[in-house]
């Protein structure tokens, strides 16, 4: 009987090894281990064995069953693996085909620049304020030390609507409005971005509509060196740590002393090249110490308070930073232009 | 202001400083030098030649054969100029000479005769034709007789001069004169100023008082009038050096009298006017305001009608000049003029400014008066002119100046304290440095320790208060030397307001929904001002607000809608083969119901969008879809969802919009915008394919937005879903049924969604099937089937009653 069992094992293992189909494997399982299987048949004859022989043969029989079962399971797993691999291979796709596009918009370059500047000054404790685009002559001019018939009004060609109402020519009226709101009592820092309008013919460097950002800091004991330091921080963050600034005296009716700020040329670092027209410097913005008349008109006592103000044009900054060479490009909204700066 | 470098050297020792270096220094000290140009730097090897003989060319009528003595030799030159003649001193470009325009002079044969050089005109030497005097404009230039043959013309004609173009800010009227620039340069370079010789020896025994009287009837506008009489003048060309300087300064020389008044105007910044005394035809000058409608023919031969505010110079009978702006033709200096009546006056700047505005006439004189002249230079300039007229026009200057004088010549006093200077600048400048700066500026002052009393010279009318002096001190000290500091005062957190932050979020949402932000103009055309105005804006009866003086018809009105300009952007792109466009803009529109604006309009913030072309572009998986109403509606719904503001859409008919594909947006029963397809006729007009737009009142939404909504707990009990499909008339709006289901089902029905809309097939004609999915939920317990069933039946009945609908089995 022992020999019989061992012969079954040999035969079964041979058959298992010889098959490569899951279905055939199933048949083998039934043929040997099933109710009518050959191993089962042998075991049925165990009753005829002596008491002594029974446990010995039983043990052998169990071993044979285990061996066959293990072989079956192993083979089955292997075949299933092969089948899965085959199936997955059949499921393969061309990963080089394009993906389904996600609809993506983006901000206008000027918005990006304005928000960058806003965030930069917010980090320095500035609040952001806005004002009307249609202004009164008073806030646009008079409150800024530009009385009617002042020669400096020629500096800005104005779109008037009536004698008293106009399209604001700068965001400076927001300065006057803010100071008035704070009633001459509060120290504050603010910037005001917005659209402004000038009576200009549109060409590569002029636009009848453009944007401006102004900053104002009013406090006791504001120094001109504070303006210089603040603008230096701004220039380095906006244009790069390696850029230098230079202040030049200038004139604005609402500041005294007044300054014009240049930054060192990115291309030549001050040596002079065609980008900076040989000067080594590029004009960026204007500013100065708030004129005492302006403080006074807005209710601040100029003996107690002083301040600095500055103003810049995001279009100009964008043109310098990104090489835009025609101001009209900001308002034509060519999709290729818009898209180019979505990651700016 | 054009500043001749060579001319400037007369007043300040410029040493070795090049024109470019000087320009850089001036710019850094506060007056921007736009550029430096050279008169004719490219001309070399041109000398004075004496035309020893001049004969006709044997073979050419229009050519002359000249023997020209150029100092060391005599050259044979063929010359085509009509005005060449024997005995002239002319400019000769020698063989090997270079002229502007890359011209090289060589020995050549002209019609068989050798020519060894070229006799030049000023234009050929590189002078700007605009400033070349009329008498030498059409031919070669002729030097004065005493010029030495062989001498280089470079310095004789000032060809090596550099001209600095100053871009003056309105406050620096003082730099509208060579002397003013000289003071500035002297301060910058820390050098003394050399004033012109103003001595005048009067030889005549006659007094000007016997020839003229001065009456001023408008002292407020004319506080000083000085009249000089110069007899026996000879009108001729002015000296070459003066002509050179005038040309460099951009003024065309005319004759000695006119040139001298212009020269002194440029030198002193003081306008002067020369009348022909005999043609003036009166022994009395009366300065008065014009009679309204009074006429005068000015020097440019234009008849001008004056308003009552215009100041005029009269001879007691008629106007002979518009004061400070332009003289009259009736008293103009002519070639025959013998006696000059010279005016040196101070006119009120604002008055001249008004006259310039009213007449449109602007001159070198008016520009200076408008910006303010130095009261202490008026008479001095007159004397300087007399001196030059004596010297260069052979005139006899009569004794005495006939004057009307009520002019304030006092200097402004400004107190400067050293500590205050440092407080404002953030510096540590000591009193001796300030004193040195004041000396460089040539300001007189008294010093008491750290305190200065500064007498501001009247040439600097822009300095009236401490801050003005502060700027003077700072700029001469050098802005470069100011330290870098940061504010130490106010501790303020800064940041965006809620409105500003939300505006950014709305933009971010629209961008992530696939729209590109645009920036269009706020000013629009007459055709566009009435287009695509949102119904709730139209309800406010908005008037078209027009600019008083638009630059172009395209940008004349303040927009009432962002959409028209946005659509032009679409057209622009489509015309450039970019068909798939999804744009939005957030910006203001301007609303007022006043026909004539008396107060500022309301500026309403709106978000508008326009989408055309393909929305989904994924062709290889057959997913390509044009934008449609529901794409744009989805974006808009998403925006309201994001803002947590419930919105309803109702069909509406609007001008310029597709009548069947447009909806108004309502929040709390108030209109807040619209959405839909453009009317096909507008699409055609704009050359656009099907285009869908939206326009939303962002102001209202921002105000309504609640940044911190109250907490709603997540439901603990299970929900039950039920579906109902109704068959109803095809004209019934799905949204209306949805609203009714919500109303009837409340509070158990939490959510109603449409999941199927079907027409045709087994649905009878004129009907449609709409399937809704209902979500039931109770906050405090698990719902029982019979509770849901009861509600379900109620809904079925209500919908049946309201819309004559039945449940599809
Ligand atoms: Zn450079």
Automatic annotation (TrEMBL), chain A:
Molecular-function GO term, any one: magnesium ion binding
GO BP, sorted A to Z: phenylalanyl-tRNA aminoacylation
Subcellular location: Cytoplasm
Keyword Signal applies: no
Keywords: Aminoacyl-tRNA synthetase, ATP-binding, Cytoplasm, Ligase, Magnesium, Metal-binding, Nucleotide-binding, Protein biosynthesis
CDD domains the record matches: PheRS_alpha_core
Reaction it catalyzes: tRNA(Phe) + L-phenylalanine + ATP = L-phenylalanyl-tRNA(Phe) + AMP + diphosphate + H(+)
Swiss-Prot/TrEMBL cofactor(s): Mg(2+)
GO cellular component: cytoplasm
Domain Aminoacyl-transfer RNA synthetases class-II family profile stretches: 109-340
UniProt binding sites for Mg(2+): 256
Cofactor note: Binds 2 magnesium ions per tetramer.
E.C. number: 6.1.1.20
Enzyme category, top tier: ligase
InterPro entries associated with the record: aa-tRNA-synth_II, aa-tRNA-synth_II/BPL/LPL, Phe-tRNA-synth_IIc_asu, Phe-tRNA_ligase_II_N, Phe_tRNA_ligase_alpha1_bac, Phenylalanyl-tRNA_Synthase, tRNA-bd_arm
Alphabetical list of Pfam families matching this protein: Phe_tRNA-synt_N, tRNA-synt_2d
Record-linked HAMAP family: Phe_tRNA_synth_alpha1 (MF_00281)
PANTHER family assigned: PHENYLALANINE--TRNA LIGASE, MITOCHONDRIAL, PHENYLALANYL-TRNA SYNTHETASE
Recorded family membership: Belongs to the class-II aminoacyl-tRNA synthetase family. Phe-tRNA synthetase alpha subunit type 1 subfamily.
NCBIfam families with a match to the protein in the record: pheS (TIGR00468)
Assembly notes: Tetramer of two alpha and two beta subunits.
Protein name (record): Phenylalanine--tRNA ligase alpha subunit
Taxonomic lineage of the native organism: Bacteria, Bacillati, Bacillota, Bacilli, Bacillales
From TrEMBL, chain B:
Residues annotated as binding Mg(2+): 462, 468, 471-472
One GO process term, biological-process aspect: phenylalanyl-tRNA aminoacylation
B5 domain span: 409-484
Keywords associated with the record: Aminoacyl-tRNA synthetase, ATP-binding, Cytoplasm, Ligase, Magnesium, Metal-binding, Nucleotide-binding, Protein biosynthesis, RNA-binding, tRNA-binding
Recorded family membership: Belongs to the phenylalanyl-tRNA synthetase beta subunit family. Type 1 subfamily.
Gene Ontology molecular function: ATP binding; catalytic activity, acting on a protein; magnesium ion binding; phenylalanine-tRNA ligase activity; transferase activity; tRNA binding
Catalytic activity: tRNA(Phe) + L-phenylalanine + ATP = L-phenylalanyl-tRNA(Phe) + AMP + diphosphate + H(+)
Subcellular localization(s) per the UniProt record: Cytoplasm
Pfam family membership, one: B5
Quaternary structure (record): Tetramer of two alpha and two beta subunits.
Domain annotation TRNA-binding: ranges: 40-154
Keyword Magnesium: yes
GO cellular component: phenylalanine-tRNA ligase complex
Cofactor(s) in the UniProt record: Mg(2+)
EC number(s) given by UniProt: 6.1.1.20
CDD domains assigned: PheRS_beta_core, tRNA_bind_bactPheRS
SMART domains: B3_4, B5, FDX-ACB
Keyword presence, Aminoacyl-tRNA synthetase: yes
Gene field: pheT
Protein name: Phenylalanine--tRNA ligase beta subunit
InterPro entries membership: aa-tRNA-synth_II/BPL/LPL, B3/B4_tRNA-bd, DNA-bd_dom_put_sf, Fdx_antiC-bd, Fdx_antiC-bd_sf, NA-bd_OB-fold, Phe-tRNA-ligase_IIc_bsu, Phe-tRNA-ligase_IIc_bsu_bact
Cofactor note: Binds 2 magnesium ions per tetramer.
NCBIfam families reported for this sequence: pheT_bact, YtpR
């Amino acid at each position: 009987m022992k020999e019989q069992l061992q012969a079954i094992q040999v035969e079964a293992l041979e058959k298992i090894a010889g098959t490569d189909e899951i279905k055939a494997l199933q048949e083998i399982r039934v043929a040997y281990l099933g109710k009518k299987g050959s191993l089962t048949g042998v075991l049925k004859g165990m009753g005829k064995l002596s008491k002594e022989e029974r446990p010995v043969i039983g043990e052998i029989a169990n071993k044979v069953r285990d061996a066959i079962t293990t072989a079956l399971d192993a083979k089955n797993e292997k075949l299933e693996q092969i089948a899965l691999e085959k199936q997955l291979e059949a499921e393969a796709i061309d990963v080089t085909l394009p993906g389904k596009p996600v609809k993506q918009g983006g901000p206008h370059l000027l918005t990006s620049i304005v928000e960058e500047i806003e965030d930069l000054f917010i980090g320095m404790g500035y609040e952001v304020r806005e004002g009307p685009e249609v202004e009164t002559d008073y806030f646009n001019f008079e409150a800024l030390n530009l009385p009617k018939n002042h020669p400096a009004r020629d500096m800005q060609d104005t779109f008037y609507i009536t004698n008293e109402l106009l399209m604001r020519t700068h965001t400076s009226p927001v300065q006057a409005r803010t100071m008035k709101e704070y009633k001459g009592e509060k120290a504050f820092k603010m910037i005001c971005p917005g659209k402004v309008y000038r009576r200009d013919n549109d060409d590569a460097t002029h636009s009848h509509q453009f944007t401006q950002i102004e900053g104002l800091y009013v406090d006791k004991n504001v120094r001109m060196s504070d303006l210089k330091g603040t603008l230096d921080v701004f220039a380095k963050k906006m244009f790069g740590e390696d850029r230098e600034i230079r202040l030049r005296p200038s004139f604005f009716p609402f500041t005294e002393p007044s300054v014009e700020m240049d930054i060192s040329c990115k291309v030549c670092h001050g040596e002079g090249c065609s980008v900076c027209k040989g000067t080594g410097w590029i004009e960026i913005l204007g500013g100065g110490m708030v004129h005492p008349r302006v403080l006074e008109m807005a209710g601040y006592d100029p003996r107690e308070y002083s301040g600095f103000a500055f103003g810049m044009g995001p279009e100009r900054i964008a043109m310098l930073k990104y090489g835009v060479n025609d101001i009209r490009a900001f308002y034509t909204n060519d999709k290729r232009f818009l898209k180019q700066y979505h990651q700016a | 202001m054009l500043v001749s470098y060579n001319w400037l050297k007369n007043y300040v020792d410029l040493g070795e400083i090049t024109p470019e270096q000087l320009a850089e220094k001036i710019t850094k000290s506060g007056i921007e030098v736009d550029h430096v140009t050279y008169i004719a730097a490219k001309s070399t090897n041109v000398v004075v030649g004496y035309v020893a003989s001049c004969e006709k060319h044997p073979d050419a009528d229009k050519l002359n054969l000249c023997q020209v003595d150029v100092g060391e030799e005599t050259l044979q030159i063929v010359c085509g100029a009509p005005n060449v003649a024997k005995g002239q001193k002319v400019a000769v470009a020698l063989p090997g000479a270079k002229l502007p325009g890359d011209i090289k002079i060589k020995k050549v044969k002209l019609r068989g005769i050798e020519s060894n050089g070229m006799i030049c005109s000023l234009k050929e030497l590189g002078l700007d034709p605009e400033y070349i005097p009329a008498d030498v404009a059409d031919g070669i230039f002729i030097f004065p007789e005493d010029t030495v043959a062989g001498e280089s013309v470079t310095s004789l004609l000032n060809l090596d001069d550099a001209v600095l173009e100053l871009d003056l800010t309105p406050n620096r009227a003082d730099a509208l004169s060579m002397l003013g620039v000289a003071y500035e340069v002297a301060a910058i370079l820390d050098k003394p100023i050399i004033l012109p010789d103003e001595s005048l020896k009067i030889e005549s025994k006659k007094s000007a008082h016997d020839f003229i009287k001065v009456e001023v009837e408008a002292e407020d506008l004319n506080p000083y009038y000085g009249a000089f009489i110069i007899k026996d003048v000879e009108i001729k060309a002015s000296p070459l050096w003066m002509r050179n300087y005038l040309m460099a300064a951009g003024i065309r020389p005319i004759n000695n009298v006119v040139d001298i008044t212009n020269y002194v105007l440029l030198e002193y910044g003081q306008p002067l006017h020369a009348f022909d005394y005999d043609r003036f035809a009166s022994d009395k000058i009366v300065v008065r305001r014009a009679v309204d409608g009074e006429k005068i023919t000015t020097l440019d031969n234009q008849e001008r009608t004056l308003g009552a505010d215009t100041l005029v110079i009269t001879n007691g009978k008629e106007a002979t000049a518009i004061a400070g702006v332009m003289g009259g033709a009736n008293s103009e200096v002519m070639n025959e003029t013998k006696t000059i009546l010279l005016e040196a006056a101070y006119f009120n700047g604002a008055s001249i400014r008004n006259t310039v505005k009213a007449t449109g006439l602007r001159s070198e004189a008016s520009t200076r008066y408008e910006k303010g002249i130095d009261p202490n230079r008026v008479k001095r300039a007159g004397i300087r002119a007399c001196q030059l007229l004596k010297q260069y026009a052979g005139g006899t200057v009569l004794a005495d100046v006939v004057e009307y004088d009520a002019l304030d010549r006092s200097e402004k006093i400004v107190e400067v304290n050293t500590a205050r200077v440092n407080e404002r600048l953030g510096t540590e400048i000591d009193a001796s440095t300030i004193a040195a700066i004041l000396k460089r500026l040539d300001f007189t002052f008294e010093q008491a320790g750290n305190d200065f009393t500064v007498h501001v010279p009247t040439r600097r009318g822009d300095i009236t208060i401490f801050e003005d002096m502060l700027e003077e001190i700072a700029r001469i000290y050098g802005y470069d030397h100011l330290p870098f500091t940061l504010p130490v005062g106010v501790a303020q957190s800064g940041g965006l307001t809620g409105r500003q932050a939300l505006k950014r979020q709305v933009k971010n949402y629209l961008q992530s929904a696939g729209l590109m932000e645009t920036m269009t103009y706020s000013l629009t055309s007459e055709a566009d001002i009435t287009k695509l105005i949102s119904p709730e804006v139209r309800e406010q009866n908005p008037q078209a607000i027009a600019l008083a003086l638009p630059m172009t018809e395209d940008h004349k009105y303040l927009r009432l809608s962002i959409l028209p300009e946005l659509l032009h952007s679409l057209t622009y792109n489509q015309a450039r083969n970019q068909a798939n466009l999804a744009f939005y803009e957030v910006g203001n529109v301007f609303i007022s119901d006043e026909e004539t604006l008396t107060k500022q309009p309301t500026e309403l913030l709106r978000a508008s969008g326009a989408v055309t072309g393909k929305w989904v572009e994924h062709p290889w998986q057959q997913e390509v879809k044009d934008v449609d109403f529901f794409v744009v509606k989805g974006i808009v719904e998403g925006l309201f969802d994001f803002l947590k503001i419930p919105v309803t859409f109702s069909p509406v008919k609007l001008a310029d919009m597709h009548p069947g594909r447009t909806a108004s947006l309502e929040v709390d029963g108030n209109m807040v915008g619209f959405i839909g397809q453009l009317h096909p006729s507008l699409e055609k007009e704009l050359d656009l394919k099907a285009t869908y737009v939206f326009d939303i009142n962002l102001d209202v939404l921002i105000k309504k937005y609640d940044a911190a909504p109250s907490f709603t707990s997540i439901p603990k009990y299970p929900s039950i879903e039920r579906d109902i499909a109704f068959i109803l008339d095809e004209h019934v709006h799905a949204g209306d049924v949805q609203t009714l289901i919500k109303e009837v089902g409340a509070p158990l029905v939490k959510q109603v969604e449409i999941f199927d809309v079907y027409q045709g097939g087994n649905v009878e004609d004129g009907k449609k099937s709409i399937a809704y999915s209902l979500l039931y939920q109770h906050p405090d317990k698990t719902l029982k089937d019979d509770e849901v069933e009861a509600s379900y039946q109620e809904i079925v009945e209500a919908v049946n009653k309201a819309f004559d609908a039945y449940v599809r089995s």
